[in-house]
Amino acid sequence: MAKQKTIFVCQSCGYKAPKWLGRCPDCSVWNSFVEELTEIGHHQDRERRQDLLGRPQRIDTVNIDKEARHKTGLNEFDRTLGGGVVPGSIVLIGGDPGIGKSTLILQVVQRLAQQGLKTLYISSEESVQQIKMRAQRISTDSSDDSSELYLLSGTCLEDVIDRLDELAPQIIVIDSIQTIFTESLSSAPGSIGQVREVTTKLMNLAKTSGRAIFLIGHVTKDGAIAGPKVLEHLVDTVLYFEGDGSHIYRILRSVKNRYGPTNEIGVFEMMDNGLEEVRNPSEIFLEERSKDVSGSVVISCMEGSRPLLIEMQALVCSSSLAIPRRTTIGVDPNRVSLLVAVLSKRGGVNLSNKDIFINVARGIKVEEPAIDLGIISTTASSFLNKPIPRNTVTFGEVGLSGEVRGVSQTELRLKEAVKLGFSRCLVSKKSVKTLKGKIDIELIGVSSVIELLEALF
Ligand code: TYD
Ligand code: MG
């Protein structure tokens, strides 16, 4: 028997201490330590582990199944995962409560089950009747009899694992990781210890049995799954389902993926009968653009392998504050401060006594440096009160000396712009040289902020 011992674990970041502490030395949160049981010494498992370990293999003798992924048929979901569900992988889907995680995953498993994959949906939040009701609501056809979808309502991991042997499902869903508990720990479900322990057990299950497991995790108030990001390093893939409740659009974003690219996004629309894929998100993000007002420009940013066209807005107005406001939604405020400084110093636009608000329409978050030109253009446009023509799109990175640099994937971005009817694009001079004649769009090369302002106004 392993020796039982208790330790104190910070519920916010997972820091462990032998004694109770008032304040976590790691994340500085007060009163976050909870006593948890821990087992010390793992040698009792040695034999079992030896069985699992196998022998070292030469790399050329390792076989991989190329077509091993299960496609769900929901293209946006498959692409975000990197091409489908990998057997033996464990995928965490995080998001705010009520955003539609259960709905999304139910739609996914319905499709997998229809292909004949045995699927078990374990809910520790809802009864099987509730799940069935939702399934009927989102189901596309009513003849679901052939479906291999099984439902189970339970909260104890060990009980659930017992059931797995008789059913032998290939796909397992746990909804949610915060409400399921393992008997080996006495702490409450949802505590760091529980969440980590349950995930570790499921991880072993996935790796040894080749079953794919989806975990649903609620993002807590401070914006991380299960308090901290304790799960992200354990699982293979982390997807976040985002969007604000007032908009019907939802974005599924991959932030970690051992089997595909990260930063890939899938866009969905929440309808009365479940989530629907949005095939051309740029069109939606540009809908309802106001006509010929200052402080609005369309930028192109890459989300994974896909270019998105997004409207970026700015409002510059006189400030009555000693330190003028720089408020941003959807972009990094530090980046905006930097670019505003560049615009003042290199572009000769005096913004020192102005409040500046930057907003990315439709609740999208963008991070790429390629948005720099957009931020500068829209700020200048609002300051000068001169609109930027509606057919114009811009992207490029801006340096501290006001120079404009090219960005990656220029061709892809331009193609998307042409597809949506844009006819004029402001990019770096270098990008123009490499792309001249390749794409049917008027390319205007700018090498500095001054040139940008001249080209625009
Ligand atoms: P849900 O999947 O339960 O969210 P989560 O599991 O992330 O907590 O989704 C809940 C919301 O979605 C709820 O507010 C109702 C809405 N919804 C629809 O608009 N249409 C639908 O078809 C379904 C099933 C839910
Ligand atoms: Mg749910």
pLDDT average, as an integer?
86
N- to C-terminal separation?
77 Å
Considering the protein shown, what is the CATH homologous superfamily of the largest domain? Answer: P-loop containing nucleotide triphosphate hydrolases
Radius of gyration: 26 Å
CATH architecture of the largest domain: 3-Layer(aba) Sandwich
Number of domains: 3
Count of DSSP strands: 21
Secondary-structure-derived class: alpha/beta
Principal-axes shape call: globular
What low-confidence regions span 5 or more consecutive residues with pLDDT below 50?
A: none
CATH T-level topology of the largest domain = Rossmann fold
Sheet with most strands = 9 strands, mixed
| Strand arrangement across the biggest beta sheet | 6-5-7-8-4-9-10-11-12
- As a percent range, the share of helical residues equals 25-40%
Please summarize what this structure is.
The protein is α/β, with parallel strands linked by helices and 457 residues long. It has twelve helices and 21 strands. It has a nine-stranded mixed β-sheet. It has a seven-stranded mixed β-sheet with strand order 15-16-14-13-17-20-21.
